[in-house]
Amino acid sequence: MTRKLDGSKLVIATHNAGKLREISALLAPFGVDCVSAGELGLPEPEETGTTFVENALLKAHAAAKAAGLPALADDSGLSVTALGGRPGVYTADWTERQWFEAEPGKDYKGRDWYLAMGKVEGLLCEKGPDVDRSCRFSCTLAIAWPEGDEAVYEGRVDGTFSWPPRGTMGFGYDPVFVPQGRNQTFAELGLEEKKSMSHRADAFAKLVADQFPDTP
Ligand SMILES: O=P(O)(O)OP(=O)(O)OP(=O)(O)OC[C@H]1O[C@@H](n2cnc3c(O)ncnc32)[C@H](O)[C@@H]1O
Ligand SMILES: [Mg+2]
């Protein structure tokens, strides 16, 4: 049995504004008292794990320990089938890594998502016009308590990598991700639609079933 949230404040342990917006919207109906890592001035831990689960747990435990409160972290990414699952767990620093290899010493702090998406497109194009464009967004949500307890929930959504980018809503790779069964990208569909079908929503549904089982 996993430990349950008991009404104390919950730290949303992310430094990504897009994720914070989505997690806040998903949590809203459950009356959880939330505070973000940014509001608490928590440092951004180095993500040294090799899986989404490892990194989500690492971020949740770091925040829970620093804040003395339960913390919810999210590790997520886009895995492209034809690229052997890349960028996957390295989605956030894909641009930094690619450019670092090209030009060591350059400052990559301002992540440029357009470049990162273009890099994926470039690698797909190298494989020819009939390349398999299927891909998947994965999301692992982890809750950690200051005493060391933890709970993990995994979600995913399958789709297609679409080029050029379309839409202005959402964040990160949303403009190039078309979920299965739809024609629009997540960035065109917007928060409400995305909330009903995303990798984050899938993981969150498992969190709700476990943490808030009595909610109708
Ligand atoms: O670690 P935190 O502070 O939560 O923020 P981050 O941006 O570094 O997040 P990750 O380490 O989990 O990296 C995941 C990256 O995958 C991308 N990503 C994850 N979920 C996404 C979504 O719903 N829509 C678009 N891109 C997403 C986005 O580029 C993220 O930066
Ligand atoms: Mg990160």
Task: Provide the fold topology.
Layout lengths: L9 E3 L4 H11 L6 E3 H4 L11 H16 L3 E10 L13 H9 L10 H14 L7 E11 L5 E12 L15 E3 L6 H12 L1 H13 L5
Parallel strand pairs: 1-2, 1-3
Antiparallel strand pairs: 3-4, 4-5, 5-6
Helix pairs in contact: 6-7
Bound molecules: inosine 5'-triphosphate and magnesium ion.
Report on the structure:
The protein is of the alpha/beta class and 216 residues long. It has a single domain (10-211), classed as Maf protein. The chain contains 7 helices and 6 strands, in the order βαβααβααβββαα. It has helices spanning 17-27, 37-40, 52-67, 94-102, 113-126, 186-197, 199-211, and strands spanning 10-12, 34-36, 71-80, 134-144, 150-161, 177-179. The chain has a 6-stranded mixed beta sheet. Strand 1 (10-12), helix 1 (17-27) and strand 2 form a beta-alpha-beta unit. Helix 6 packs parallel to helix 7. The longest helix has 16 residues, at 52-67. The radius of gyration is 18 Å and the shape is globular. The two termini are 21 Å apart. The structure holds inosine 5'-triphosphate and magnesium ion (MG). Inosine 5'-triphosphate binds at residues 14-16, 19, 44, 47, 59, 74-77, 91-92, 137, 170-174, 186, 198, 200. The active site is at 75 (proton acceptor). One of its GO terms (molecular function) is ribonucleoside triphosphate phosphatase activity.
Features:
216 residues, alpha/beta, Maf protein, 7 helices, binds inosine 5'-triphosphate
Report the β-strand fraction as a percent range.
15-25%
> What structural class results from the helix and strand content?
alpha/beta
User: How much helical structure, as a percent, in the residues?
Assistant: 25-40%
Figure out the total of helices.
7
CATH architecture name? Alpha-Beta Complex
Biggest sheet strand order reads: 2-1-3-4-5-6
Report the average pLDDT across residues: 91
CATH level 1 name: Alpha Beta
Largest β sheet strand count, sense and barrel closure:
6 strands, mixed
Secondary-structure element order, as H and E? EHEHHEHHEEEHH
**Radius of gyration (Å):** 18 Å
Shape: globular
* CATH fold name: Maf protein
Q: What count of domains describes the coordinates?
A: 1
Strand tally: 6
* Low-confidence runs: none
N-C termini distance: 21 Å
